[in-house]
Structures are given as structure tokens and as C-alpha cells.
Amino acid sequence: MKTFSIPIACFILSLSQSLCFGDSPEQNWHHWRGPDATGVSRTADPPVEWSEDKHVKWKVAIDGKGTSTPIIWNDKVFLLTAIDTGVKDTSIPDPEDQPKSNFFDIKRPNTEHAFVVLCLDRDSGKELWRRTAITKIPHEGAHNDNDFASASPTTDGNHLYCWFGSAGLYCYDLDGNKRWERDLGEAKVGSSLGEGCSPVLHDGKLVIVRDHAGQSSIEVLDATSGETLWKRQRDEDNAWATPRVIRHSGKTQVITAASGAVRSYDLDSGETIWQCSGLTGNVTPCPVIDGDYVICMSGYKGYAAMAIPLTETGDISGSETILWQRDRGTPYIPSPLLYDGLLYYNQSNQSILTCVDSKTGETVFGPERIGQLSNIYASPVGASGRVYITGRDGTTLVIQRSRTLTELATNRLDDRFDASPALAGKQLFLRGAEHLYCLEADSN
């Protein structure tokens, strides 16, 4: 009798590889930038080509607004949304009757919003459960390109951590039972641009960074109880960069990117290990780790990229220990993709791509206008030797991971995409303004 090495349950399900889900971070997409926080999945093999009528495993409408990336764990998909209930507080003037209070003329809503956590079945897209974390009127508005559910959740495979910014932090088990919640206070974002930094989970600790026009801070909580372990004030203005946590040089470092400085905090004590200035304003891209260096970049009112050593202490601004720097063509909103020594990023929010050698900072190709994409807010992702770049107009360009710009396919869906993609197994998840798509490659 022939012996099969795959689980018998997967064999029964028509040998469909898409149904053989995993319980390890490497097989899932548990964090908004993937298993290693680089944008790469080492195990995924998503489709190269798709359209509205090709390789769409399922497509479901999502009520409300949200640009948070869906999170994948085993057979479940999690995402956040904020739903305007229309229930009005008449003590607050209608937005059109409020005086102009900021540069973009963004007004405070006067209707209650339901801040909702959704869990979908990964195979069918069917809603398994939804939980309204809280219903409240936002204390300030958000830019039209942002919303009240832009921070991506994260999971350790046992609990789901959902951060709605000023609307609170909530912990559920994967069956939707609430374990704890915390109100961490209200942020005052300059020009009412909205919040967006995602939480990061590491070794039972949850990291929350809040850089805004009020008192900025970094806070680390016990992931089991939600209790604060330590909190530090930060001298920073608006920034939206999700931190990166890494064990290096004998300490677990929490690396935060912002306009004043890139800083490394000791996860256990909260003490600053090192700091380095040099980025521009409104820092949004997430830091990425390459060996002994962290690469940070920004692209608002100027361009900046730096490869900063993880081995130093103190203020290393302008130091010769910085491996390389660049001052052209870096992104404003999207984070870079680090894929086996090649660092891909776009200019500002434009469809102009650059690839550099992550070890040297030297240009591999670009800056070069790519494909048929319009503006880009979503961060690129990579798997199976391919790079996926999604534009706001629904077009995704697939290129080869190589030292030359080699286009493999251009795909289009009928939605607007600001959320970053997620990859797991043979599936690619794309969250649009109206729908969540699960795209699946054919099984071999």
C-alpha cells in the first residue's frame, strides 16, 4: 500500500492544497507585513494572473470602511472595519456646518460608528463571527484617504489583537470571545489625517506606538492581561510607521521610525538603546531588518533612506557606522519590500519603482515607471520569486524577483485598493473599498 506523507484530512478534501492550512507563522500572514515583517512569504505560491472572472475563489462585500490588511491564520481570515450607523448626536453640528479647523477642512463626524472585528472562513469567505468592539462617535475626523479602521490586527495563533486607535485596543480569542480591552486615550493627529500604526506582538508583549500632534508615546502591554508594562513619551509629530521588533546584540530591540529620529528601545525595560536622525516628515514606511542593519525610509517633503546598524548605542546620527543612505525616490505611504537582498520601493505614492541592493544601497534598476498602475498606497509583497505591486485603481503588476525589471502579468479588479495584500498557501487576499477578494492559484 502506498503511504502518503500529507495529512489524511487534506487528502480527503480532493487533494486541494489550498485547504491544507498551517498553524505556524511561516504558513500564515499573522502581521500586516507578513511572517518576517519584510512583505515576503516563504511558503506561499499565489496566482500570477487573475481577473473578476479568473482565479477568484471568493469575493465578499465588506460593510463599512477600513484599509487594514486582512490577517490569515489557519482556516480563518480576520479584518477590521468601521461602520457609520447613521445615529446622530444632535449636540454636535453637522460636518458641513462646522467651521474650517485644519488644512484639509476635515470635519468631525456627528454619527456613531461601530468598530467591528470580522472573522471569515478562509475556504468559502463565509462570515463565521463578527464582534462590535465599541460604538462611539469619533473624537475627530480622518482624511478621505484614511478611515477609522486602518491599523491591521495581529495574532499569535491563540489570540487576536485589534487596535482601533482612539477607539481602543481589544483582545479576542480566535472564536470571538473577548479577553480584555483597553482605552489608551485619544490621539490628536495633525490636520485630522487619521491614525494608522499597527500593533506588534513579540514574546507575549504588545507594542503600541502613537506619534501625533499631541503627546506622542510608545507603550508596551502584557499581551495576556492588557496591563501596561512600560510607557515612554516621544518628542515626535505625526508619523504612522509600524515598529519592528528584533532580537539583536543581546537585547530585544523595538525600532521606531519617525521624523525626529529612528529609535531603538529595549523591549524589556523601555530604555533607549540608540537613535539616529535623518528621515523626512510624516514617516509611514515600516522599518525592515537585513542582517545587522535596519533600513528605514520616508518620502514626504523630501526623500530619505538609511541602513542603520543594530549593534550601536547612543546617538549615531551622521555616524560613519551608517552603512548607506539615499535621498531620492523613496515612498511616502507604502513600505518597502525586502526580498533576498533586493529592496523594492516606489517613489512617493507614484508608480515609479526602484530596486536597490540592500547590502550596499547601490541601484539595481530604476527609478522606472511601471505598468499601468496609478497611485500606490498598498505595500508590495513577494512570494515564489515574484513581486506583487497593487495600485489604487485595482491594477496589480506582477514582476519577477530579479535584478532586471521583468513584468510577468498585469491584473485588474473592479475596486479601489489602499490596503496591503496578504499571502498564504496558494491564496492572495486583496481588500478593496467594497470587497475582500480571495484569489487562488490552480492546484497542481
TrEMBL record:
- Its domain of life reads Bacteria
Q: Which residues form the Pyrrolo-quinoline quinone repeat domain?
A: 116-364
Do you know which Pfam families this protein is assigned to?
PQQ_2
Q: Which SUPFAM superfamilies match?
A: Quinoprotein alcohol dehydrogenase-like
Gene3D superfamilies attached to this UniProt entry: YVTN repeat-like/Quinoprotein amine dehydrogenase
Q: Which InterPro entries match?
A: PQQ_rpt_dom, Quinoprotein_ADH-like_sf, WD40/YVTN_repeat-like_dom_sf
PANTHER family reported for this sequence: CELL SURFACE PROTEIN, OUTER MEMBRANE PROTEIN ASSEMBLY FACTOR BAMB
Q: What is this protein called?
A: Outer membrane biogenesis protein BamB
Record the organism: Stieleria magnilauensis
